[in-house]
Amino acid sequence: MNSDTQYFVQNGSVVREIWGKSDTILFIFAGASAEFALNKAVDWLYFTGKLPADPIGRLFSTVTYARQIVFSEMDVANAAIDKITAIHSAVEKNRNAKIPDWAYRDVLFMLIHYSVASFELLERKLSAAEKEDLYEVFLRMGERMNLKDLPTDYNDWLIKQHEHLQADLVKSDLSVDLFKQYRKHLGSFRYWLLIESQKLVVPARVKELLGLKKSLWLKIILFFYKLSRAIKLDGLVKSIVLPAKYKAEIKALDRNI
Length: 257
Fold this sequence. Notes:
The chain is mainly alpha-helical and 257 residues long. Helices cover 72% and strands 0% of the residues. It has one domain (14-213).
């Protein structure tokens, strides 16, 4: 990395460590896929028809888009954020309605929560300073999108996130349908893995709405997966459990930080 180059996230930031590993990103995806389905604005994701047609691809692209911003130079990252804003503006125009500002904040909040939850599940606890670093990155994303009423710091975000979980989530017919689409596109075994993975990272409110019970099996599986990483067999494990369509993309998510 050129020391004179200005990146959206600078070298040494814990955000690069979190978003530079496919394992962490897969758990971010798993958690977000649960919360996406419960969001009261999920009808916007159904409007174009692309989400139910390819739910895994659409949600995975959202997560990978965020990751690309994390590792891009400042100008490139800002251009990518502006492109996201423009795409949503086009959808609003086609529907002749406006996506609620809180719906944008909810997606930002998801990325923050699952970044922390996934990294702490797989690696280690984050310090207070590291959590502030993480929040500052996503705060800048939100500010670039001209979002209003964003929390000022990580502790303020914790309060606002709790409020969002109570106010903005509901189990609707679209929630049920989206989970049916997950099963259809993943198959029974991978769908089971998705649900078990969700149990390990989603907030209590999401567990309550989805009726998710404690995960015993995945904790055992997670132990053996961490062991496979230690003996360099995790690539083989992922090649067995991941959909063939996404294997190359997921492998490319791993990078030297």
